[in-house]
Amino acid sequence: MEIINANISHFDKLETTNEDNTIAVQVAQVLRQLYAFDPESTFLLDYASGPLSRNLAASTRQILGADISQGVVDSYNRLAREQGLSPDKVQAIRVQPFVPTSNTSTAPDGGIAEAANRLEEELQLAGRKFDVVLCANAYHHFPDIDLVTRLLVSVLKPDTGRLFVVDLSEYKRPHGAGHHHHGHHHAHHHPPSAGHSHDPEPFTGPTVAHTGGFTSSRIQSCFTNAGLCDFQFVDSAATAEMGGGKATFFIASGRRRE
Ligand SMILES: C[S@@+](CC[C@H](N)C(=O)[O-])C[C@H]1O[C@@H](n2cnc3c(N)ncnc32)[C@H](O)[C@@H]1O
């Protein structure tokens, strides 16, 4: 809960007037190649909302944003209006954070059913499900990415709904041999240092639950366990200068099986 509260207070204060759209523009371009968006029908959820979904507005019928920070929700909606998008087309809503009741290994449910019901109510879905759920640059903030993935899958249309996750690809560490760790990487922190100019640490601090980026296999196991199939992974969908080096962003996608 501590990390979730750190995120709420950090993102509530963040000034997004001069939002940097660079990554969002690159990722939106690749997403349009990966998925047949239909401006007449595609219903999209942007969980942890940001510029990426607004870049996809012309390709979708309706976008709902969900975020735990009222500040992010307000900026998202203001920027959508400035872009000429009406609330019935694009609208973010503040939602309660999903706080897992226990960890993935010990709980078959982990509080997902309750969280899914609450999310459906908060978004006033009345039984509607999403064609696409998008979650960009937020997985590194989530204490338990397996449980969040299962929550996101629960609001997707069975058989056809697709989840897209964007986040930082695993850093190429010059001295990183043997550091391909799974599960215990919270404890490993590699601050940027001289001589590691290609080893950026763009996301650090009290809001970050996972440093070091994610491997394709970590995300794939997360997706598979959550009931997704047709896994796709674009390792380098976007790049940006961050933290004194080049950061590379992946797009992972999977289809809800049933
Ligand atoms: C780095 S921003 C990314 C925003 C946007 N998707 C983008 O790509 O620019 C991270 C977002 O995750 C949200 N967030 C952090 N922790 C969260 C949590 N536990 N549940 C839902 N959203 C969370 C923050 O409020 C913030 O809007």
UniProtKB/TrEMBL annotation:
It comes from Serendipita indica (strain DSM 11827). Transmembrane segments: none annotated. SUPFAM superfamilies: S-adenosyl-L-methionine-dependent methyltransferases. Residues 175-210 are annotated as: Disordered. It comes from the Eukaryota. Residues 49-159 form the Methyltransferase type domain. This is Methyltransferase type 12 domain-containing protein. Pfam families: Methyltransf_12. InterPro entries: Methyltransf_12 (IPR013217), SAM-dependent_MTases_sf (IPR029063).
